[in-house]
Amino acid sequence: MRTNLNQFFLLWDKSRRSFVLAVRSLWLHKLRSALSVLGIVIGTGAVITLMAFGEGSMQDALEDIKRQGATNIIVQSVKPPDDSSNQRRTMTLAYGLTHADYAKFKQLDTIVGSVPMRMFKQEIRSLHRMHNGRVVGTTAGYRNVNKIELVDGRFLNDSDDDNIENYVVLGADVAEALFPFQSATGETIMVNGHDFKIIGVLKERTPLSNAGGISEDYNSDIYVPINTCRARWGVAVYIRSSGSRSGEQVELHQITLTISDIDKVRDAGAVIKDNLERDHGYKKDWIVVIPLDRIEEAKRAKDRYMMLLFIIAAISLGVGGIGIMNIMLATVTERTREIGIRRALGAKRADITLQFLIEAIVQTTVGGVIGALIGVGLVFIAPIVSEFVFHKNLPAQLNAQPVIMAMSFAVIVGVTFGLYPAYRASRLDPIEALRHD
Amino acid sequence: MTAVVRIEKLTKEYRLESVTVRALRSVSLTVEQGEFVALMGPSGSGKSTLLNQLGCLDRPTNGRYILANEDVSRIDDDRLSEIRSKYLGFIFQSYNLLPQYTVVENIEVPLLYQGCRLNEKTRLRCVQLAQLVGLGDRLDHRPMQLSGGQQQRVAIARSLVNDPHVILADEPTGNLDSRTSDEIMQMLMKLNDAGKTIIMVTHENDIAAWAKRIIRMRDGQIESDEQNVRAEIRHEMSGAFSASLSSLLAEAIR
User: Fold this and answer.
1) Which of A114, A138, A181, B136 has the fewest Cβ atoms within 10 angstroms?
2) H or E element, residue B213
3) Are A137 and A186 in a shared domain?
4) Are A200 and A318 members of one domain?
5) What is the pLDDT of residue A284?
6) Residue contact B90–A344, C-beta within 8 A
7) Chain B touched by A17 (CB under 8 Å)
8) Of B38, B64, B26, B81, nearest to B200 (Cα)?
9) Are residues A156 and A51 in the same domain?
């Protein structure tokens, strides 16, 4: 036990000596050392930076999904693909969800909330101004589901709907475009020949990627009670575009359903799909989006990204390691005489191996630390540059784990690629080595 | 007198491509404690090969080598390293100091490989040795900042640090001018007076004249082996230095 401890301290002394020597020779050949560890620096830095940005955008995506609501199920109408069998030469195309569907969903006992929506593009006019916006017919529940806030007035309520009131709530951009210098609340706008009284204005909303992954801008929306919408626009909406009139007949574009419990979301989703399949028959004019699934999808995407990063890290650190090995082999040749001297003075093969191994580890560790510093620096600087130069938000999330991982990788690389040169050094014949110039 | 070094019918053969070179042909030699031996001979006579054998840097093809009562002719590489670090001190023609280390650090190197922890005590000993060879004011200099003679003196201090049984010197004055050579030889002589066994390879008669015993080699064999009476007289003249060295060496570190 005593001798073991002593041996350990001896090893410690030798390692410390080798460490000091390694640092000195690094310092002596500054440029050479810098170039030889460059691979490790770039590898470590790149991995840390990419990890941070990957993590950041993943967090962003997850928050995005959570904003849609993890307990929600979103049912949307989709335009069915042109099918010659049902192509009647009419100008109006009828498809999508119906009020009947909506009524049915409300019967399901796991559903605690449901918000229907009907959306179409319209010109919105005030006395002097015009804005191309989108009319959204919905109910009071919309506010809670989408967690929206108002800057002024109030949102639609159930009695507005029951009474088919000509009330409207404006999105932030619409309010700004139509009433730039005054409060919009209480004013009147005209849409499709009907007057609507403004009862509230929404706060600016961050765009949310929808089922197709395209960002939707909500700030040009105006909200009217769904019954009012049905009463004023009827079932079909005609949109003039480049001289021809095309129309759509869609009762509801979207129904957002809130499920009582997160564990019941999947089952409820299945029930809803079954219902729609039965009721809509061959017509695949609907889609069920479950944000909960997207969370898992996002997690899977993250795993794939991390796997990819892992491969990139392995390759770049491997390349860096080859650089270290190259320089270590050169160092061994250069210092053959020193090895001979040490052997003559009593160094065992293991002592020589240890010395050159430590030298390689010192190099890669220094490289790893510099790389980590650069990586962390980039994580802080890049989003600022991106914000100011490209006006794009670049989310970054820096965790300790990838930093530690990248640096320990660098050390492992040092051991792996330092082993062979160190072994070569230890196998040199002392007499030959002493004779070497 | 006890025999520190005893070699019996030592043979060393090298294979150079298809030719076998017989560098040592059944050499027998005994060196006793406190001797100062000069190995002489023309190049190719086998004196360097013999020194490498004596220095445990190589193993013989045949024959026995007994160093301090241990047969070292058939032991493995690690054990050879151990023998070198414990029983032998080396002085080379080209000094062979480690350029990255200071004077004191260079002197410390054999201690580290001997299995001795470096601490204040060992450092003090190294400093004392540096002072002994006259480099007390150069402790933190690097070899490049020292003259050839000074470097060789560091090498001498280094060869003493592990209190070796035998000091092996390979042309210790080969790179030095005659005045500095004299200084170095004086120093070796004094070490010998203090009881150190020295085996030195040289091809210069002037240098060999310092040794008490001169062995001449030719074609891998010992040609002549004689006592050098002139050196004995010289040795009698050294004084205080030996006393201080003896006391220092007495402070064995093990």
Assistant:
1) A181
2) strand B213-218
3) yes
4) no
5) 80
6) yes
7) yes
8) B38
9) no
Instruction: Dump pLDDT digits (tens) for B9-45.
Output: 999 998 888 888 889 999 999 999 999 999 999 988 9
Q: Which of A42-51, A389-398, B128-137 has the lowest mean pLDDT?
A: A389-398
Q: Return d(Cα A350, Cα A411) in angstroms, integer.
A: 20
Q: Helix axis angle, B240-250 relative to B120-132, nearest 10°?
A: 160
DSSP structure string for A296-315 = HHHHHHHHHHHHHHHHHHHH
Are residue A181 and residue A236 in the same domain, yes or no? yes
Written as six digits, the tokens of A419 are 């082993």
Q: Please report, as a single letter, which amino acid is at residue B144.
A: M
Which is the CATH superfamily of the domain at B3-17+24-250? P-loop containing nucleotide triphosphate hydrolases (3.40.50.300)
Tokens of B141: 């200099």
* CA distance, residue A414 to nearest chain B CA (Å): 22
ipTM over 0.85: yes
Q: Cα distance from B227 to chain A (closest Cα, Å)? A: 29
Using a CB-CB cut-off of 8 Å, the residues of chain A touching B55 are 344
Q: What is the largest CA-CA distance in chain B?
A: 56
CB nearest A345 (choices: B58, B90, B99): B90
pLDDT digits (tens, 9 = 90+) for A188-221: 998 888 899 999 999 888 766 554 445 567 888 8
Report how far residue A121's alpha carbon sits from residue A253's, in angstroms, rounded to the nearest whole number. 12
